Amino acid sequence: MKTDIEIARSIVLEPIEKIADQVAIPTHHLEHYGRSLAKVDLAELSSPNKPGKLILVTAITPTKAGIGKTTVSIGLALGMNRLGKKAVVALREPSLGPCFGMKGGAAGGGYAQVLPMEKINLHFTGDFHAITSAHNMITALLDNYIYQNRNTDKGLSEVLWKRVLDINDRALRSVVTGLGGTINGVPAESGFDITPASEIMAILCLSTSLDDLRRRLENILLGYTKAGEPFTVRDLGVAGAITVLLLDAIKPNLAQTTEHTPAFIHGGPFANIAHGCNSILATRMALAHSEYTITEAGFGADLGAEKFYNIKCRTAGLQPALTVLVATLGGLKMHGGVDEKSLKEENLEGVRQGLTNLDRHIANLQSFGQTVVVAFNRFATDTDREIELVREHCQKQGVGFAVNTAFGEGGKGAEALAELVINTIEEQPSAPLRFTYPLEASIEEKATEVARQIYGARSINFSAKARKQLDRIARHGWSRFPICIAKTQYSFSDDPTAYGSVRDFDLEVRDVVINTGAEMIVLVLGTLVRMPGLPKVPQAEKIDFIDGHIEGLS
Q1: Which of 257, 335, 428, 505 could form a disulfide with 354 if both were Cys (CB 3.0 to 4.6 A apart)?
Q2: In a shared domain, residues 459 and 503
Q3: The domain containing residue 299 runs over which residues?
Q4: One domain, residues 332 and 360
Q5: Same domain, 36 and 139
Q6: Is residue 432 part of a domain?
């Protein structure tokens, strides 16, 4: 079979005007980025059409290679369109960090991709660069404020705001700035997060309008004054300037799939260090122009789906009609105790043991009131006996099951899944969302509910550093915000090697990051870092420009 990038190059792209016409977006509301990409004016958020139905795609706890949520999401849209339904996808933008680090790309795979994949995986329409620039512009303006007021009572006693960069670079996690004498500023400890972890990224994805973007930017907490009061972007007086840097980035991007289905691609927070969902604006725009909108939430359902419901849906008032849970034999076997080197070999007992992970995710999703179906993402090495074992298990659980082969067959390979999803929504739509915790609860109470109900933990404890932040949160009235737990994506616990369906473990919140602009409180668990490092053999070693073509992206 051809590689992803070879398949992508073999598709003749339609002009973006033709893609927009499928969802009744007029040309004068497009801002072209070449022939096959465009930003869409925010005026298209409103539509005379009845809003479409929202479908979430999430997954079991993933392997290091992933489970294939993006491929399934795109394939489901292709399959629905083959069945005569008007379906679109609303996805996140890839980050350069994973593209050149571990994964190599994030635009789907095989014959279920969003195109042009080279541009989407690289600079796209510049949204990540705009977010990086806006974040670091605040940092530079804050450093200047500190320098200009270093000998006055207007100085700050503590600075919280750091820098970001959209690459994996462990050497930048902790740095010292301002060295070289007073002409170069005030020496201070600082560091870098990856751009998907930036609060600006979260703000862009959670904003419901341009005015809401401006309001949230003003509320960003930068540090504390000498009197112990919060110091924000509003106090710095630069919210207008930062908004200007994001005027283009806030507009959703329109692209197309391998079968020319419209795709809204916007925002890119990771679910292990942020809330892991594409922008509210892109989701709403997709809903306004389709019968069905398929979106995804990052990593396993314990991370992405939990935050999708408790943060994104609560903020935007969204109500998913159904949730698709993606599973693979490789993932099930890994959680069944099979060695990672043997995941491609038939192992019925390993699959049987790994089903406990699937069941935990199904139960968690159902606790939100969601109707769940399982999409089995098939690979060439999967055996019929193993697949039937999973199918029979799902039938016993009363959960719909369909095999997805969109990677190799495009929309045709997702028709069974599409038919299952459509029929299930018509016969058994999801109940109104039930959130894991009320917003009136304290941060500690919210964390306890997620830890026990979603992760299966015995307890969750807070370090002395984290408790200091909890005191500030309570004092300044920030307890009303939802929580965003940052932890490993490879386990229900904070131990990345604890596979399966672990329970009754203890969690510790190492740090608390207060995002008053994004209006969420980030709890950092275990050894998780917000600036990833590169693997021993980064994907960058495989990326090249050969004979007029980009190679190595996948």
Answers
A1: 335
A2: yes
A3: 4-125+249-427
A4: yes
A5: no
A6: no
453 part of a folded domain: yes
CA distance 419 to 75: 12
Kindly state whether residues 172 and 275 are assigned to the same domain: no
Number of independent structural domains in the chain:
3
Verify that 415 and 289 share a domain, yes or no.
Answer: yes
> What pTM was estimated for this model as a whole?
0.96
For residues 62 and 271, the answer to whether their CB atoms sit within 8 Å is no
Q: In this structure, is residue 288 part of a structural domain?
A: yes
Count, residues in the chain = 554
> What are the tokens at 530?
């917000």
Q: Is residue 539 part of a domain?
A: no
Locate 437 and state its tokens.
Answer: 């915790």
Cross-sheet strand order for the sheet of 221-225: 156-159, 221-225, 230-232
The region, left, alpha or beta by phi > 0 then psi within -120 to 50, assigned to residue 212 is alpha
Same domain, 90 and 202: no
CATH of residue 323's domain is 3.40.50.300
The helix (H) or strand (E) run that includes residue 17 is helix 16-22
Q: What CATH number corresponds to the domain at position 492? A: 3.10.410.10
By CB atoms closer than 10 A (0-12, 13-18, 19+), residue 15 is middle
Helices then strands, counting H and E runs in the chain, come out as 20, 25
The span from the CA of 351 to the CA of 357, in Å, is 10
Residues 329 and 348 sit within 8 Å (Cβ to Cβ): no
Which uninterrupted H or E stretch holds 369? none
